[in-house]
Amino acid sequence: MTTIKVSDEQEIISRLSSYVQKISNDAIHNRGKFYIGLSGGSVVKYLCEGLPTVDTDWSKWVLAFCDERVVPEDSDDSTFGTYKRQLIPKTQLKESQFVVIKQGVSAEEAAKDYTDKLKAAFNGDDFKFDLLLLGMGPDGHTCSLFPGHPLLTETTLKVAPITDSPKPPPSRVTLTYPVVNSARNCIFACSGAGKAEMVKRILKDKEDLPASQVKPVSGSLYWIVDNAAAAHL
Ligand SMILES: O=C1O[C@H](COP(=O)(O)O)[C@@H](O)[C@H](O)[C@H]1O
Q1: Where is each Glucosamine/galactosamine-6-phosphate isomerase domain found (predicted)?
Q2: ipTM of the complex in this document
């Protein structure tokens, strides 16, 4: 694991964008496509500001979601909806490059449908992402994998529904650890004093929390934290 301490949110954005540029270009060079998993929450802002600066072949990108809220696409809570409004217009990405959840169905049906769409995108059921961009909530959750939740031990489903998310909205779909930990690269990006205590509990005290269970089996793990989030390290 590599921890990268930077001064502020702007530097998080520029470091994250450099990693995305390198990893995307390597993936496209070596395998012809770049599979990236996006998160919601604060990561959206980093990516909507940073990705438009990346020098890459956008046509080779396949974009999916580490987790998604089961809400209408035009809701502010929809992670895809937010990228659609705030990222697509600033890049050459097309909406058809995003693997999105089905609208107007239950979390269970959305999870099954999203699994099928990922199988089509990956040409099989080995969902090996080149890069997952992850956030960590102040409670230590990542994706929609929350402390104490039974989904933390899910090993059969690759994509799971959740209807009792402690953070609203309650209905979501999420990648599970077997998929997360098979990624070639996982990057957490955290900023602000509100994350400092949890960053310390995970990176210094090595407590067993959802974000600590992200340990790519044969991939690389990076934590990019700003000074405020790294205050107790
Ligand atoms: O609800 C969610 O929260 C996490 C963390 O969000 P943050 O705003 O605290 O960074 C996010 O990674 C996840 O994708 C999202 O659905």
Answers
A1: 8-223
A2: 0.98
